[in-house]
């Protein structure tokens, strides 16, 4: 899950946990408060009850003493408190009865008390009646009957008991309340702590996730920055396009070389930096090569890449100001996750320098060629005339010296030729005039060139051509074969035999030049194709080679898309093989 | 009458060697010029039977000299053989400008006369060569 999503989840979880804790605490607080209020109410109630009972008692005592006062004095004034008390007692009794209605126990107790109170009141009334009606003596007799005292004691006892019970209840309830309050506080406390702990934990997690997210973001930014730096510091122009060839991005090198800004390039078809004729010609070329129509628009650039074939070729880039420069263009197809074509990437290397170098080299070769050949002409010319006696006969020693000079002038001349040849061939700037050449013809022509020398040594050359033709620059290919044949002649004994055969398989043909000479050691089979490498150092002088023949031969063959190699066994002769592709028509008909 | 050959080359030694070779081996009469310009002038005056012309020369180079020779009425019909170092040779191009043939430097002094005759369709039978091949008195 993405970092943002995780952080969100944790924030939600923490909030929910917080809310739940809050809800729990709120509910507990609410409940506790309700209970406290209830408890308070009961407390008030209890106190009221105790007071009422006390009031009742006092009222009774009041009434009693008022009665006794009247009994003693016989004056009506003393009955005033008694009357008041009676009224009050009525009210108080009613109130108590009402208040105690909820408590069955107290209610019962009070109900048991009431008749006793009633009895005591009657006794008082009796006392008052006795005094009023019968006089002082009768009242004394009522008082002395003790019944009043007994009733009073009973009432006192009961009321005390009720009050004590009430006080005990009160104490119990208070204790209960305190305990419940305590447990509630505990729960609240724990819940609060839990809530805080959860919130802290969540905060920590969120903080960490956030930091990680920031780190990731930073890393991503860094990676992007590095990528951009790489793209923009590259010494290659990089242009990316969508599948339809419209430019999406261009790096700094592209902008600099082409003179457009990235914004100017974006959205345009990539062909705006190409030469229309070049595109058309490439399109035609691809049409022929791939056997399907390729138009001369952006398709000419990307078709090969789309088919997954590595595509690299030289072409021109055209700048905003219309000037052009040569580039080596590599095109790759960009594919998305499920291998869908997402576009193309075109990477171009500026060849201006390379081309300039090439031009300089060609000019150099040209100049050197002339500069070296001019004095050589005079040397060979003069020596030739001298050594051949045209200017007159020479004394023997002079003649010998002249011969030596001439031979080496020839060698020097050949060396210059070979070096320049190799230079031109390897630089690929030699004009290769490709034609369809018949294999047998080529072979015959090659043999003709060495035939004289071979005859001179009594060496026979047997040709076994095969049917078919190759695409080749006739002159160059003959040069290559003559090279091999010349070597074969050089290294064959007198009267030896050389075989020059051609064999075709599938779409290729292999030429073989076999001699019965002294052979080549295995470790030299590759190196002999290198410049100035000869199997034996003395060969150069004796056999008159320049050491470049095989290098030139290889260069020519490789330019024609083939390869050349040697097979040999010391003392058993050597076979030089040249493999070349058959001309298309022949390859098709090959069985 | 021996054939006259004009050799135009800016290198003194090559001129000498060519002269010696053509005279001693081919029996030709040889006149020399050391530049394109002096070569054209000499050709107009002396009307040689053939001209051997070096390709690479300072000032008026071989090609330009060839073009001039072919343009001037006095020299237009004189066959010109170009002398080139192998690399610059574009035989076709030179022939298209009017050259009768191309010789490659360094040339074999023994074969120079042979080659000249081959290109020009002459027969070399020693000194005193005739156009139709028959030796003259």
Structural description of this entry:
The complex is a heterodimer of chains A (591) and B (137). Chain A contains 16 helices and 12 strands. Chain A has 591 residues and is an alpha+beta fold. Chain A has 4 domains: 3-206; 237-350, 2-Layer Sandwich (Beta-Lactamase), CATH 3.30.450.20; 356-426; 434-589, Histidine kinase-like ATPase, C-terminal domain (Heat Shock Protein 90, 2-Layer Sandwich). Chain B is globular and about 30 Å long. Residues 127-137 of chain B have low confidence and may be disordered.
Structural class of chain A: alpha+beta
Measured as a percent range, the helix fraction of chain A is 55-70%
Distance between the termini of chain B: 8 Å
| Count of domain modules of chain A | 4
Q: Based on DSSP secondary structure assignment, what is the total number of beta strands of chain A?
A: 12
Shape of chain B: globular
Question: What is the radius of gyration of chain B computed over CA atoms, rounded to a whole number of angstroms?
Answer: 14 Å
Oligomerization: heterodimer
Summed up, the helix count of chain B is: 5
Count the beta strands of chain B. Answer: 5
- Average pLDDT of chain A works out at 86
Number of helices of chain A: 16
- List low-pLDDT spans of chain A: none
Q: Would you tell me which CATH topology of chain B applies?
A: Rossmann fold
């Amino acid at each position: 899950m993405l970092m943002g999503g995780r952080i969100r989840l944790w924030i939600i979880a923490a909030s929910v946990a917080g809310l739940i804790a809050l809800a729990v605490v709120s509910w507990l607080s609410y409940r506790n408060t309700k209970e406290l209020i209830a408890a308070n109410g009961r407390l008030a109630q209890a106190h009221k009850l105790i007071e009422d009972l006390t009031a009742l008692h006092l009222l009774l005592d009041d009434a009693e003493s008022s009665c006794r006062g009247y009994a003693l004095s016989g004056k009506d004034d003393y009955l005033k408190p008694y009357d008041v008390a009676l009224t009050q007692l009525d009210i108080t009794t009613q109130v108590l009865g009402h208040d105690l209605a909820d408590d069955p126990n107290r209610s019962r107790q009070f109900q048991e008390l009431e008749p006793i109170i009633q009895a005591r009141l009657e006794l008082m009334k009796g006392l008052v009646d006795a005094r009023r009606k019968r006089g002082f003596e009768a009242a004394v007799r009522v008082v002395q009957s003790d019944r009043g005292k007994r009733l009073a004691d009973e009432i006192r006892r009961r009321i005390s008991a009720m009050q004590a019970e009430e006080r005990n209840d009160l104490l119990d309830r208070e204790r209960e309340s305190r305990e419940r309050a305590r447990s509630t506080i505990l729960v609240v406390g724990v819940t609060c702590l839990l809530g805080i702990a959860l919130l802290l934990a969540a905060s920590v997690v969120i903080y960490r996730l956030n930091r990680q997210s920031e780190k990731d973001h930073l890393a991503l930014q860094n990676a992007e920055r590095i990528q951009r730096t790489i793209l923009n510091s590259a010494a290659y122009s990089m242009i990316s396009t969508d599948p339809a060839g419209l430019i999406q991005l261009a790096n700094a090198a592209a902008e600099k070389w082409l003179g457009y800004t990235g914004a100017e390039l974006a959205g345009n078809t990539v062909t705006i930096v190409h030469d229309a004729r070049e595109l058309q010609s490439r399109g035609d070329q691809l049409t022929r090569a791939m056997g399907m129509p390729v138009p001369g628009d952006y398709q000419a650039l990307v078709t090969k890449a789309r088919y997954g074939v590595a595509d690299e070729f030289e072409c021109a880039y055209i700048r905003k100001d219309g000037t052009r420069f040569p580039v080596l263009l590599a095109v790759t197809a960009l594919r998305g996750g499920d291998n869908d074509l997402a576009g193309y990437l075109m990477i171009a290397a500026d060849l201006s320098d390379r081309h300039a170098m090439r031009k300089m080299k060609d000019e150099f070769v040209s100049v050197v060629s002339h500069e070296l050949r001019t004095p050589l002409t005079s040397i060979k010319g003069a020596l030739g005339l001298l050594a051949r006696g045209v200017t007159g006969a020479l004394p023997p020693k002079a003649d010998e010296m002249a011969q030596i000079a001439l031979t080496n002038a020839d060698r020097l001349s050949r060396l210059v030729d070979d070096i320049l040849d190799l230079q031109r061939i390897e630089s690929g700037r030699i004009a290769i005039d490709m034609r369809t050449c018949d294999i047998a013809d080529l072979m015959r022509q090659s043999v003709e060139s060495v035939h004289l020398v071979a005859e001179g040594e009594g060496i026979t050359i047997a040709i076994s051509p095969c049917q078919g033709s190759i695409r080749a620059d006739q002159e160059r290919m003959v040069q290559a074969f003559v090279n091999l044949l010349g070597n074969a002649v050089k290294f064959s004994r007198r009267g030896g035999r050389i075989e020059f055969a051609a064999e075709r398989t599938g779409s290729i043909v292999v030429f073989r030049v076999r001699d019965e000479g002294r052979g080549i050691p295995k470790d030299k089979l590759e190196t002999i194709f290198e410049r100035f490498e000869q199997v034996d150092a003395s060969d150069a002088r004796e056999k008159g080679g320049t050491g470049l023949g095989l290098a030139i031969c290889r260069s020519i063959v490789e330019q024609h898309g083939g390869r050349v190699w040697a097979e040999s066994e010391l003392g058993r002769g050597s076979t030089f093989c040249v493999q070349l592709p058959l001309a298309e028509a022949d390859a098709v008909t090959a069985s | 009458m021996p054939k006259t050959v004009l050799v135009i080359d800016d290198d003194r030694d090559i001129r000498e060697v060519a002269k010696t070779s053509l005279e001693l081996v081919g029996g030709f009469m040889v006149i020399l010029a050391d530049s394109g310009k002096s070569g054209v002038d000499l050709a107009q005056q002396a009307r040689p039977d053939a001209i051997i012309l070096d390709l690479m020369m300072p000032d008026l180079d071989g090609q330009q000299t060839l073009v001039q020779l072919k343009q001037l009425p006095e020299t237009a019909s004189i066959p010109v053989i170009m002398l080139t170092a192998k690399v610059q040779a574009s035989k076709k191009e030179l022939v298209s400008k009017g050259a009768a043939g191309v010789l490659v430097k360094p040339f074999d002094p023994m074969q120079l006369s042979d080659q000249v005759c081959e290109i020009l369709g002459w027969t070399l039978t020693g000194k005193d060569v005739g156009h139709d091949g028959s030796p003259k008195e």
